[in-house]
Amino acid sequence: MQRFILLSFIALCCASCSGFVQDIRRPIDLIPDASLSDESQADFLIRGVQAQFSESYSDAALYAGGLSDELFFDARTGAGGLVVYEEVDNALTIDRSNTTLVTVQNRLGRYRFHADDLAQRAGKVSFSQDSSRRRIAFQGNFHGAVARYFYAAYVGINKQQGGGVIDNGAFIPSTAMNDSALAKLALATQNVTSPYEARLVQTLTARIHLMEGRFAEAQQAAQNGLRKGDAPFQALFNLLSSNQLWLNAGLGRNVYIPARRFDTLYLRQDPLDTVRIKLRGPTTRSGFTFYTQTKYAAQDSPMPFLTWQENELMLAECELRLASNATSALARINGVRTSYTGLRALAAGTSPTLDLIYAERDKELFLTGLRLIDQRRSNRWHLRPDTWRYMPIVQPEINNNPNLPPLVRD
User: Fold this and answer.
1) In 33, 88, 140, 311, which residue has its Cα 20 to 30 A from 24's Cα atom?
2) Model-level pTM?
3) pLDDT digits (tens, 9 = 90+) for 201-213
4) What b/e string do you get for 354-379 counting C-beta neighbours within 10 Å, with b at 16 or more?
5) Which residue ranges make up each domain of the chain?
6) What number does CATH give the domain 41-193+381-410?
């Protein structure tokens, strides 16, 4: 009798569980992919890609700053015990399995995937107006180009060779990855919805050509790039998605701190340059004195990605390299400087040189991820020659990608 009661109870429970499972409604926080291929979802998809851009750019600028001579790590600031940051700063041995770097590259991979997916949807959705189709096509192709540029600029298969992987494919070296970015920018140009977007494309095109040492092409693109008065194209953040340079190289915590040349050289030479080089300090801990950057003074401080000032400095560099047009180059440099309240033009008679432009870029593009690129392309590396100049492709990618060798030698 007891056995019969037990078996009956088990049967009842099983029946109840079966009914319970069958009666569960579908999750309300999931959207089927087919539902996203609809014109009404355009803003949702674009905002998602833009948010992923901000995450990836913030990550890239942080670690590029640490790998370059722009930022450095010192445990005496009170932010010790963070091995990955110290490894990146030393650049001799960087653990490919470090969970932080894996997370960073996973985010970049998602950004690239969703940007490409957005561009593809422009050809799948029925739009009531062609302007809506063009908006999605522009955003998808523009951000697809940016993601590829990030791979070319910041990721590498070994210490000296930059590039990345797309969709579990073979390794794509930096030059080929940048060429792929330029192809995406050409598609974006076909779908611009404003003259400003067209100029954004040209400024990024110029940056990529400059990175590759193609100065004539860089000059041609920059001549059609952002103009004085154009708003910067920025990465935006909020209290849920923080600016990493505030969080780990600023007032959030001093994991990385600015190189001492910013205060001991640049600001001593020109104290008015605090309009571009924003520092707080000095602070002394454990007998160590350092400064904290306040360019990004809040958790949600935006980060400029493309600016007319950078465009002018690219034109100045190309004019020196291609035509030795010192007069025009100096005018452009001074135009950038005097666009800031209180910052003076360089002294009359100053002879612009590539060294001068290198220093002006260092100040103007402070904490935007470009110093690492400038060091490599100018052959001004600050560490021994056998150190990393890119962030390594992480071990999970190597393990899971049949098109990569099982062990990549550094």
Assistant:
1) 33
2) 0.90
3) 999 999 999 999 9
4) eebbbebbbbbbbbbbbbbbbbbeee
5) 41-193+381-410, 244-293
6) 1.25.40.390
